[in-house]
Specification:
Elements lengths: L6 H16 L5 E8 L2 E8 L15 E2 L4 H14 L20 E3 L9 E3 L6 H5 L16 H9 L15 H9 L15 H14 L3 H10 L22 E4 L6 E5 L20 E2 L1 H12 L3 E2 L2 E2 L3 H7 L13 H4 L3 E3 L4 E3 L12 E5 L3 E6 L4 E7 L10 H12 L3
Antiparallel strand pairs: 1-2, 1-15, 3-8, 4-5, 6-7, 9-10, 11-12, 12-13, 13-14, 14-15
Helix pairs in contact: 1-11, 2-6, 2-7
């Protein structure tokens, strides 16, 4: 009987991941690899450092930026229904973001601007070229960074859902700030995901979470995915940690009983607000791998999935994006797409993303492969941690 994985390769991957837990790099993790229909799931470690409750297959994780592709699929559903179109201006639905001004330079004062050359379009938001995003520089290097922090726009640090502004107020505050680049000019991280979530809510006339639940989570049976963890499931939420520079010990970022995710947030972040499990994420990835369908459930057309997973950036769009995309990845519609090989696991056409609170999920259509690794340790930088790269290297090495 033929198998999709080499048994020794899988055993090596398990030993290596277990070693990261035993060595104190991370308290626990859950891994999933699937190749040509054969799937393996493993859980390692505990829900809390030094704790006794074991990590389980159904552990609920804060998936952070793995929210971004899910929000993009929601937008594509509305586009397929012709309720909005890719080259529509977003102004009718998000008037707070109309009539934009653009900084003359990233270090300019907030009133040193020029008019935007055109409105922001739906395509700009999906491709993260709306002209506003995270500034990768030490805090308060530029006036716009200080304004982002003072206005609590987000994207300048890890998410804190309970302290966010409600949707209308968030849009008002964002609309009071100038753009950093002309619409369509440059790829800028994060803010587009939140604007996309706001757009889905305004176009559909429903809260983002309600739309996602009805059109994605319930059809795909993603029963543990949402913007908060209900009280009866909080025991499945691990503590979340980060490591301070120069220190070996892990520091708690988010507790479990008193978690920032233990109640519905005032703002449902389409950029990074969801919690989920590996099996829920697997259902979403299978749907994407199958061209928008999971079994008898159709979410999107194959044409929409193909467009989403095709690189949309030109050389000019990529200026300054290397810290996130390197020289090997591009960006489709709400999701990263590998455009060249650099590591064993980076192959043209592979798509997915990582979450800053310790999650990664990618799909490789050419190999019919899906990989997911969920941990509760925050990333130290945009560069993947060692246990991410070890997981991906060994997952690919284990495939027959």
């Amino acid at each position: 009987m033929s198998t999709a994985f080499n048994k020794e390769g899988l055993a090596r991957m398990r030993r290596t991941l277990a070693g990261h837990v035993e060595g104190g790099n991370v308290p626990g993790m859950v891994s999933l690899v699937s190749h040509r229909g054969e799937t393996h799931v493993d859980a390692f470690g505990t829900l809390a450092a030094g704790g006794e409750a074991p990590m389980q297959r159904d552990t609920i994780f804060r998936i952070a930026s793995l929210t971004k592709p899910i929000t993009a699929v929601a937008a594509m559903i509305l586009i397929e229904e012709c309720r909005m179109r890719l080259d529509d201006a977003i102004d009718p639905w998000l008037p707070e973001l109309a009539g934009r001004r653009v900084l003359k330079a990233i270090d300019a004062e907030l009133d040193d601007t020029v008019p935007a050359q055109r409105p922001i379009t739906v395509r700009d938001v999906l491709t993260y070229r709306m002209g506003f995003g995270s500034v990768m520089a030490p805090p308060d290097t530029y006036p716009i960074q200080r304004a982002i922090r003072e206005h609590r726009i987000g994207g300048d640090g890890p998410p804190k859902p309970k302290s966010a502004h409600a949707l209308d107020e968030w849009l008002r505050r964002l609309g009071s700030l100038p753009l950093m680049a002309q619409p369509g000019e440059r790829w800028l991280y994060n803010a587009s995901g939140d604007v996309l979530g706001a757009l889905v809510a305004r176009v559909s006339g429903r809260p983002l979470g309600d739309f996602l639940r009805e059109r994605l989570f319930e059809p795909l049976r993603m029963r543990d995915t949402g913007f908060h963890v209900p009280a009866d499931k909080l025991h499945r939420l691990p503590l979340c940690y980060f490591r301070k520079p120069g220190e070996d010990a892990l520091t708690v970022f988010d507790d479990a009983p008193d978690s920032d995710w233990n109640a519905p947030p005032p703002f449902e972040s389409g950029a990074g607000g969801l919690v989920s499990t590996v099996d829920d994420c697997f259902a979403f990835q299978q749907m994407m791998l199958s061209g928008g369908r999971l079994g008898s459930v159709r979410i999107l057309s194959p044409a929409s999935v193909a467009l989403m997973t095709t690189d949309q950036l030109d050389a000019g769009n990529r200026v300054g994006a290397d810290i996130f995309l390197g020289d090997y990845a591009g960006w489709g519609l709400g999701v990263a797409v590998d455009i060249r090989s650099r590591e064993i696991f980076q192959t043209p056409g592979r798509f997915g993303w990582t979450g800053g609170l310790g999650t990664t999920a990618y799909t490789d259509p050419a190999r019919q492969m899906i990989g997911i690794l969920f941990t509760q340790r925050m990333m130290d930088s945009p560069e993947p941690p060692r246990f991410f790269s070890d997981f991906w290297t060994l997952a690919y090495a284990a495939m027959e």
